[in-house]
Amino acid sequence: MTIEVNNESGLEIDERAVLDIARYALARMRIHPLSELSVIAVDIPAMEQLHLQWMDLPGPTDVMSFPMDELRPPSRDDEEPPPGLLGDIVLCPQVARTQGAEAPTAHSMDTELQLLTVHGVLHLLGYDHEEPDERTEMFGLQKAIVDGWRTEQGLEGPSPAPTMT
Asked: From residue 154, how far is each of 18, 47, 100, 114 by CA, in Å?
């Protein structure tokens, strides 16, 4: 799995954790090991620009996903997934820091970035949360992945609840 993490945000982030949780999420979703992913952390002005350009919404957001080859997890255990370019996940650490601090169970910016990385991976794989049943499926899967990674890393407690709407 080729995963590139670039931090252009101006804040120090735990790039290793972002890389590790992205790799864990893709393995858990059974994405081909030769697939490629890019994760970019940007500052608020850059995220505001992307949010307006691609979603026609003002202000910054926490995470955006830009799929390339529209890869999907295999539907059967015996199905071999194809390799490909997953796409880009763009994170905004400044927004993540605020969201983490304001969450019902307050947590660090890096913990929020880990959650947002998994959220971005799931969007790249075609998951969405517009409808209630989609939201239940996506956020349940997100929690299972983050909890599994946290357990594997020896981190205490369950993953924080999603802070995005």
From this structure: 16, 32, 20, 15
